[in-house]
Amino acid sequence: MAASPDAPNNGGRRLALMILGRIGASFVTLILVALVVFVISSLLPGDAAQEALGQSATAEQIAALRQEMGLDRPAYERFATWAWGMVGGDAGQSLVANMPVGDIISERLPNSLLLAALTTLVAVPLALGIGIASAMNRDGRLDRALNIVTLSMVALPEFLVATLAVLVFSVQLQWLPSIALVPEEAGVAELLKALAMPVAALAVVVMAQMARMTRAAIIDQLDRPYVEMAVLKGFSARRIIITHVLPNSVGPIFNAIALSLSYLLGGAIIVETIFNYPGLASLMVNAVTSRDMPLLQACAMIFCAVYLALMLIADVAAILANPRLRNQ
Amino acid sequence: MADASANPYVAVSGLRVSARRPDGSDFDIVSDIDFSLARGEVLALIGESGSGKTTIALAMLGHARNGAAITGGSIRVGDVDLASLGAADLRALRGNRICYVAQSAAAAFNPARTIMDQAIEAALVHGLMSRAEAEAKAVGLFGELGLPRPESIGRKYPHQFSGGQLQRLMAAMALMSDPDLIILDEPTTALDVTTQIGVLQAFRNVVRRRGTTAIYVSHDLAVVAQMADHILVLQQGHIVEAGRAARMIEAPEQDYTRTLMAAAHPAPSVPERGPAADVPLLEVRGVTAGYGRIDAAGHPAIPVLRDVSLSLQRGQTLGVIGESGSGKSTLARAISGLLPPARGQVLLDGAPLPPGLKGRTRDDFRRVQIVFQNADVALNPAQSVRQILKRPLAFYHGLRGAAADARIAELLDLIRLPATIGDRRCTELSGGQKQRVNLARALAANPDIILCDEVTSALDTVVGAAILDLLADLRRDLGIGMIFISHDISTVRAICDDILVLYHGHAVEQGPRDTFAEALHHPYTRLLVSSVPELRIGWLPDAGSAPPLPPVDESGNAADLCPFLARCDTRVAGLCDASFPPRHRLPTGNEILCHFADEKLLPFARGNMGAA
Amino acid sequence: MSVGRFLRSLRGLSLSGRIGLGLVLFWGVVALVGPMLAPHPVGAFVDRDVFGGYSSRFPLGSDYLGRDVLSRLLSGARYTVGLGASAAIAACMVGTGLALVAALGSRWTDELLSRFMDTLLSIPSKILALVLIAAFGSSLLLLMVIAAFTYVPGNYRIARALAVNLNQTDFVVAARARGERATHIALFEILPNMIHPLLADFGLRFVFIVLLLSALSFLGLGVQPPAADLGSLVRENISGIVEGAPAILMPALAIATLTVGVNLLIDALPRAGRR
User: pTM, whole model, 2 decimals?
Assistant: First the structure.
């Protein structure tokens, strides 16, 4: 316990090392994920050359194309070329659209990010509010009601939520368009109107999970002796939750938020399809249908990278919020 | 209480706290509780688990745990009746006029906030003083409770303190508002005995100096005898006996009070020592064990046990005593093979055992059985008592069917449990019953040696005393050798032939039990023995009679020096801080790990390093 | 856990738990005998009207080709429940088996398995399923395998955490000190204490898998015609959305009642079972 003068400095270095370690581990995982994605998508019965030329192609034609596409080289070499290309932003050539995968994606990515950002703005505050309110009324009437609601929302198929939304808001009430087509020069109001339903449908899906995990993270702390101690020091329930419990549950709450947000890109598949929204997820579905492997791989890698980045941010935030790790 | 003043400061009458069973019916946790207390007095609530002592203590703050509620009676403190107050009024009293010191300060402090933040929070929330005043007062209290560097420790977080320090910090926090009443809920129970004594002294000092009115909850009569003016004995939610402390200690009126007192200090029950065989049943030779990578010289990265040797004769009991972290459980794990020693050997009847589990024969396993401290987790909750006992019978002896059933009946009889208990799950048994089943599972192997790791520590004293009796009988009737690991020297002295004292993984002293009654000892043994509270008023010396030891310069390689150096009051500069101590044999026959072997080791003989 | 104890724990269910249990039982029965109760042949064009409303002849209306929605629903439920249950069972058996191997095996085994599972876990489940389908196709058997594979890592993580915790408990340490072999410890000491939380996890996996398979079918990548699960029914009738046809609402509702029912039931199970 001797407080040597260089202790904080030393602690800072250990903290930096720990965070660097997490970043390193995330990179390793990303490489492994790339390997898994590459291996699975290269296990095609037949190969891309066969696929591209169809059944009628001659063996020579296929061999020529194979060479052109580099399919005749050993697998590890192809993986290295591919992975290195991904790092440099060159994801290869789309087999179907016959244009660089990078171009296709850069057209769609902003749409996906816009949808994700708007949904985040709606869902995160709502989810935290619901989670905290539930926890503060643990086992009370409000908590039980919210529990049933969020429990059901977690289990609802997205297409039911989206279909019901269309049915109510565009078919019955005719307030909102059933297709989320954003015109090139749209104003903010128009944009919001067009995106209201996709955002709402996505928000419903991610919010419930986030709210439940927030509640669980808080409840997990409520039975700790320090909470009883705070009660016995005469503090109000609101003060106990906000100043005593929340600082101890930021780790799991950040984790819950990151987990939910990671869903907003890849998980938006259904919502994008129903509302005809030109995002990345529906692009990936097209890639699956047309077996456009370079495009598929690139999409999958983007989703995985986003997931890993979000988890990393939550992890580092949790480390920084924990005095035990902050002050060794 | 009869002898409290006519207009008592705290008066509780007809207090009842009830809770609801899962099936919906109500039951009383405590009922018909009456007592009173004059200003500046300390009342102790004594009882075993389930006696309701903590329930009463919390009711003094108008609080009840886990859906229980105060359902009757009055709780008057000063001129308010807590039982009639609403939530907001109660909040205004708590942490202000009535304060609480929790059992485990390590858990009761918020890990995410600084000590100062938490110490002054109540004073600020209740609007008692400004932040600057509060911080100044907290620093003063930290000093008063004997905490080091009171000005700066407020910036630290709870995990940066030891258990004893946290307990002092919690007391300081409770005194911030100069409360009318302070509730101390088993504040030293989780501490090691040598730490407890200092904390008790600090508590008694501040309580006396400030004339604080206090309620002190404990299961330990000896501790309470040092603090309390009045003692109230509880059993299963009812008052058994109450009175002035001196009268209760010297002339208890109720049988239950006498049982409690007797159980706290078990009478020795050690049979005559038989002749020693040439080859001991179990021998441990220079065992070093720990965790992490083992270097070329055989030292693990995190050593827990260092160069420990012992021997055990058939039918004898060796007591191993030490504080938390002394390595006593590791010793049992090293012998049983769960943690292979990095160096040294374990010999059974003179033949070396393979160090780890690998390579041991089924018969090796059978001969050495281990019984764990906490029967709640040592017995598989998915199995019935019968299934638990059946396995070792089949595994070691191939007993099945009727033969196994007959043996199970015998075993249950041996541990004095009814045969009907066989079909129950162990989760349905009481703590004492579980510990007996735990013991029976070891006995089912027909072992030569049983390693008992703190087998009575998790039990109430009365239940624990019954287990000790059982152990003594088993050993006499079955001639099993036993290693009895404990942190409680009075238990060890009661049932062991020989005693081994562990400190930081070193065997600092070992020898026959009888010599532990004499004066000449290793300084740590002396501290340990003198720290065990005795059941007499005035045992606890006043703090300040011995000034605290100056800290040792720890710049050198501490691993090469005496493990007890920092806490030793006998140390001599130039010797103790220069080299590792040798093993000496004392005139009493005990072997100690110390630079000295003479009268310097007698109590109150002080080294010149402390005086410098 | 004995059957008797399980039944007793059901008796103490809350209202929402009873509703959940009712829904689960209902869909279980439908999956077993539903197709036998179908009033019309599954593939027959029986209504001249398309997207017909509720009527006595077609209680749930007719679909985009004039087929009976109720009959198609009864048969679709069998695919959804059957595929979901078998994939969930496969995922839990493989995940838990590997978890026990990891918890009791050497450090290297654990390290390798856990690394691999962590890698799979960092691929969002829908994405992983899509890549697998792109690579291998989507026959019924493949769909089952793909869904199971996708959810093995999640079950593995839960089961491994449980097994590692149990492996450190004193009763397992006592078994090891007794000289027991790893297989005995895994099967008789550890596994029986994992059943309860694993049952809850099984329910969750089932819900995830049903949602995943429905979503895949909805995208046209799941169960292929002429077979149709509930998700396919939603997809093929998507054009009925503008008129709010029962043909699109009913299958979607069917999935929702199934998954919500399982969720309600798990949530109401005794707390001790869900750590």
Answer: 0.84
